[in-house]
Amino acid sequence: MKDQHYNTIFWAIVTCLMWSTAYPFIKIGLHYSTPIHFAGTRFMISGLMILPFTIRPRDYVKMISENRNLALWVTILQVLINYVLFYSGMNRVPGALGAVIVGAQPFVTAIVSRIMIREERFTRAKVITIFLGFSGIVLVSVGRQGFHFGLPGEIAGVIMIFIANISTATSNVLVSKKSKNMNPLVLSSFSLLMGGLIMFLFSFFIEDVPDKPSFPIVYWLVLAWLSFMSAFTFSKWYVLLKRPGVKVSELNLWKFILPVFGAILSWIIVPGEKPDWVTISGMVIISASLIWFFGFNGRRERKAGETPAGPIAK
Predict the structure, then answer these.
(1) What percent of the chain has pLDDT over 70?
(2) How far is CA 192 from CA 10, 42, 127, 164, in A?
(3) pLDDT for 151
(4) What confidence score (pLDDT) does residue 149 get?
(5) Which of 94, 126, 165, 167 could form a disulfide with 77 if both were Cys (CB 3.0 to 4.6 A apart)?
(6) Separation CA 163–CA 20 (nearest Å)
(7) Which residues contact 17 (CB under 8 A, 6 or more apart)?
(8) How far is the C-alpha of 255 from the C-alpha of 233, rounded, in Å?
(9) Where are the domains of the chain?
(10) CB within 8 A of 87, min separation 6: which ones?
(11) Residue 98 — pLDDT band, cuts 50, 70, 90?
(12) Which residues touch 116 (CB under 8 Å, ≥6 apart)?
């Protein structure tokens, strides 16, 4: 059990590290393509990448048929609603504000999981970790990009991103509760492939997609990485959500480290981006809160106050 505890931590960190690469690479891809068209293409390829690693075609179709409600809802919530609203919302708000709202996802997930799962509780350790983690998110975002808010379009963008957070959280809870008889690779391949196909086709009606696009090699490299990253991270996250003792709200606390990795990547690859004390302070707060929750006081409180659970989601 202890080995699985640390194995879960390891893969949660790896998954979040890979997820953090999405933001800078998406920005590159959007220089050459429209948002929904680019996202649809990416997820279609992701779903196809997973297919060879699932099960026989006949068993695949049977499993989807037997779990069609779960497969449908995960496709709608995790891929369609989440990413359509996420892309649309991020286009309406400043980068720092968007990062703060996205960074609130662990808090939103904790609320949604508490409502939908009886065993999920707001322990003192969890509340403190969420508060510190969100405070770190604000510092990282403000330190990197500055912060302002108030235009009507920005309010609409905030609402869109917040609904996307709720959609992702609900999907995570459904996977944790309802996917006992569902192969995680089958679920991720189907939801990504079908969600991507719908977004791809829909983009021709709502976006100005070129009839004969000509993309440079950098576009295809970015698309290849984002497709592989989505295929791996969604599949691995669904595997972690199904593990015995893993709580949805605790797993999603690791998403607080996304802006930490994102800031470090920006310092490495984006010209002009440099470390500053505000951003570094936010990183320290996020890291310390997670170490505290999963390593010391938080673990003791969870053992004393609720059923033991292993620790441990653009």
Answers:
(1) 84
(2) 24, 9, 32, 16
(3) 63
(4) 55
(5) 167
(6) 20
(7) 257, 261
(8) 12
(9) 2-305
(10) 35, 36, 39
(11) low
(12) 170, 173, 177
